[in-house]
Each structure stands twice: as C-alpha cells, then as structure tokens.
Design brief:
Residues 20-268 form the ABC transporter domain. There is one protein chain. By secondary structure, the chain is an alpha/beta fold. It has a domain at 107-184. The protein contains 10 helices and 12 strands. The chain has helices at 58-65, 91-94, 111-117, 127-132, 135-154, 170-182, 200-217, 228-234, 252-257, 259-266; strands at residues 4-7, 12-15, 18-29, 32-43, 47-51, 73-78, 81-82, 96-98, 188-192, 220-224, 237-242, 245-250. Strands 8-9-10-5-11-12 form a 6-stranded mixed sheet, sandwiched between helices. The protein has a 4-stranded antiparallel sheet with strand order 4-3-6-7, covered by helices on one side. It has a two-stranded antiparallel ribbon with strand order 1-2. β1 (4-7) and β2 form a beta hairpin. The two termini are 34 Å apart. The structure holds adenosine-5'-triphosphate. Residues 29, 32, 34, 52, 54-60 line the site of adenosine-5'-triphosphate (ATP).
Length: 271
C-alpha cells in the first residue's frame, strides 16, 4: 500500500490510495453481535465484493458505511477521514453513492425524472430560487436534464427516458437504480445485491456495466452479493464475513479456495 504523510502549515493529512478503510468495526443489536472487529481496506479504483452466508453481517456493514447504522466501536475512514460524525444526507455529496436491494424508485415519475433526482444533491440552487424559477435554476435544471440523458445513454436506457417507471421490466428498473446513483458522481458506488432477480443475459450485462462504470468514471465499487458467480467474475478483491467476523480477504480464487470460507458456506471442509 502506498501511503505517505503530507504536511501543510495548518494540518498533517494522510495521502493514501485506500479510498475506504473499515477499522475494527463492531456493531451489536442488544445481545446479537452483528459485526465483531471487522477491518479491511478498499483500494481506490477497485471492484470489491463483500460475501458471507445469511446473517454474516454484510448488510449491517453496508448500512454502517452509508451511515444508516452507527457503529459501537471502531472507525470507517473515507479518503483518510472518519465518516462516523457525518450525517447521512452528506454521504452523496462526499462521494458515496448506493443502490438498494429493494428498488427505491418513484413509480409515478418518468425514468428521466427518477434519474434527475439522483443529481440534485450536487446542485447549487436553493429552495426559494427553485420556487421562483429564477434564470440560474432553469439553467441548472437544463444541465441536470442533459447529464441525466447522458447517464441514461451510458446505461443504454435513453429510449425509456419518458416512460413511467411502473410499467418497466424489473431488469430495466435495476439498471435505473444504478443510473440514478451515478448522477451524484460517486467516488465509491455501493451496490446492494445488484444481481438479485436478474436473468442470465441481464447478469452478463451487469458484469459489463460494473466494469464500464469503474473503467470510464474511475469509480470504486463495493458490492454485497449472494450470486457467487457474479462476485467472483467481476471483483478484484473479495472480503468474506461469517457470524460478524472477517474470515478472509483476497483475490477471488484465493477466497473460493479458502478452507474457512468453504466451511462457512458448506458447513464442511476443515475440521
Ligand atoms: N436492525 C437489526 N436489529 C436487530 N438485529 C439485526 C438488525 N440488523 C441485523 N441484525 C442481526 O445482525 C446479524 C447480521 O445481519 P445482516 O443482515 O447484517 O447479515 P447479512 O450478511 O446481510 O445477511 P443476509 O445475507 O441474510 O442479508 C443477524 O443476526 C441479524 O439478525
């Protein structure tokens, strides 16, 4: 890892190629230990998969990184700074975007409007200017619309722009979730079970899409996923959890062959 210390007049900051660092994170729900001292780094520009059997703590960790849950102990650093004091509504402007397992789209709005909503946190206009339709708000709206159209083109969804969400196939809605998340130009895109409910062709499109997002935007990707084939194909690094503890992290092949991971999934292997 390529860390170096850079001194300025007022402060000393750590310049690092680690985008996100999970440091000894524990989370308890009453007597249940959902996460127990979990640590790992996500290098900038990598695609990282987070796996583990049911109840392993994947969603809990995902929710801690997106600030939906608080940790009991440990720290989570984004670009070298703790995010634990940052409110949830700041996550998007800080560069952390996410998609949801259960689609969180507005069924009675058009595709374009849903995608434009994803870009609003980066807007400069205020509530009053928007209400009065002042010239700069109209310009910003136009720019937002153009950007939404270019994200829709990137995702191959431009033909659907004016359709209502309600009637669209599930696979298209899943792509729209990704499109909307891209509107905030995330440095880290967190994807919660992106493969869930997709058919075979949609799965191979998803692999290509995740790679294209990283390659063209330089976006770092963290995905929580049960579909092992997808995780192993698309990830450069995989972190495996079980019963709230990190079992292993490494290249997909190392994880697939790791005896503790095999045992956690199959209940067999190493004795
Ligand atoms: N809000 C909550 N309140 C109480 N217990 C919770 C809560 N969220 C998670 N848990 C518990 O924490 C543990 C980890 O759950 P979590 O949902 O993070 O696992 P997971 O790996 O995402 O599982 P799955 O793959 O089934 O979604 C489980 O025992 C779960 O029951």
């Amino acid at each position: 890892m390529n860390n170096e210390i850079e001194s300025t007049n007022s402060a000393t900051s750590v310049v690092t190629d680690t985008l996100l660092s999970v440091q000894d994170v524990s989370v308890h729900f009453g007597g249940i230990i959902a996460l127990d001292g979990v640590s790992f780094d996500i290098p900038a520009g990598q695609i990282v998969g987070l796996i583990g059997p049911n109840g392993a703590g994947k969603t809990t960790l995902f929710n801690c990184i997106s600030r939906l849950y608080n940790v009991n102990s440990g720290d989570i650093l984004f670009e070298g700074k703790s995010i634990l004091q940052s409110p949830i509504h700041k996550m998007s402007s800080m560069g952390i975007g996410r998609t949801f397992q259960n689609l969180a789209l507005f069924a009675n709005l058009s595709v374009l409007d849903n995608v434009m909503i994803g870009g609003h946190p980066t807007g400069k206009t205020d509530y009053v200017s928007n209400a009065l339709h002042l010239p700069w708000t109209r310009r910003e709206e136009r720019e937002l619309r153009d950007r939404a159209m270019s994200v829709l083109r990137f995702m191959g969804l431009q033909e659907t722009a004016l359709q209502l969400i309600g009637g669209l196939p599930f696979g298209v809605q899943k792509r729209l979730e990704i499109a909307r998340a891209l509107m905030s130009k995330p440095k880290l895109l967190m994807m919660d079970e992106p493969a869930g409910g997709l058919n075979h062709n949609e799965l191979s499109d998803l692999v290509a899409t995740i790679r294209k997002i990283r390659d063209e935007f330089g976006t770092t990707v963290l995905l929580v996923e049960h579909h092992m084939g997808l995780v192993m194909e698309v990830s450069e690094k995989v972190v495996a959890l079980s019963f709230g503890k990190k079992l292993a992290e490494g290249a997909p092949r190392e994880i697939q062959e790791h005896p503790d991971v095999i045992e956690a999934y199959l209940g067999t292997g190493k004795k």
